[in-house]
Amino acid sequence: MQSPGLVIIPAQEFIPTIAASAFLHLERPAGSHVQFNMVQCTIASKRNAAVTLLLEHKQFEWLLMLDSDMRPLPDTLLRLLAHDRPIVSALYRQKRPPFKFVAARADNGPLALDAGLQLVESVGAGCILIRRAVLEALPGPYWFKANDQDALEDVNFALAAAAAGFPVYVDTSLEVAHLTVAPIDSNWALGDLFVRDESERFDGVRGVALVARGLAWEANQPFHVDRPTQA
User: Of 102, 82, 81, which Cα lies nearest the Cα of 91?
Assistant: First the structure.
């Protein structure tokens, strides 16, 4: 049985209805607490307040940072907890083209999609699970330090955690949608009609599983060059 923890949602006055519905259906261990942080102004200050709250309540063993523009699956938290890693994130995309994944390997190489846990250098904090031991070991009160543009607080946290001996992982088999006017996930990025057609070719899979199948299929195709015929 998993220990209880905190689910903190940094939020402004309004959140998307799709996100609110997803939060209501999020499965979590007994005794866990969900809180919307609408007090501090900046995202970094909201994240730091979440850490402070966790450390003040000894009964909580983990912190799930879940941004208010995310659409987690009902079992997202339980799947992250099951990995038993100090820091692990779900996979999600940026809101704007080219819709890159918000995670980066140290060698800047591509992520292996639908391949479970992968070690990364940095990851966004939109859907990230952090164990108490990590936050107790890192110096506060500014665990999340933003730059001059009030951004990259999540990247700086990941780098500081790794430097302190806490590796950062992302589950490339667990994708959550990043909400804007439309939910931005792999299905949206590829185009819904294209996804339907390709999904039929690959046993009905969707999302990152479909992307992974497509890349694997393409890699196994013979390379050839079409040459013009001689007159």
Answer: 102
pLDDT tens profile 207-228: 898 888 888 888 887 655 455 5
Which residues, at least 6 apart from 177, have a Cβ–Cβ distance to it below 8 Å? 70, 71, 92, 183, 184, 185, 188
Domain assignment present for residue 138? The answer is yes
In the chain, the number of structural domains is: 2
Residue 227 lies in a domain: no
Residues in the chain with pLDDT < 70? 182, 188, 222-231
**Count of other CB atoms within 10 angstroms of residue 143:** 22
Neighbour count for residue 54 (Cβ, 10 Å): 21
| pTM of the predicted protein model | 0.86
Residue 212 sits in the same domain as residue 134: no
Burial class (CB in 10 A: 0-12, 13-18, 19+), 40: middle
Could you tell me what percentage of the chain is helix, strand and coil, using 3-state DSSP and rounding each to the nearest 5? 30, 20, 45
Alpha helix (H) residue ranges in the chain: 17-24, 43-56, 76-82, 132-137, 153-163, 186-190, 192-201, 207-219
Give residue 137's domain range.
6-177
What is the distance, to the nearest Å, from the Cα of residue 11 to the centroid of all Cα atoms in its chain? 17
- Whether residues 40 and 151 fall in one domain: yes
Does residue 155 sit in helix, strand or coil?
A: helix
Q: How many residues does the chain have?
A: 231
Residues 31 and 127 in one domain: yes
Is the domain of 151 the same as that of 207? no
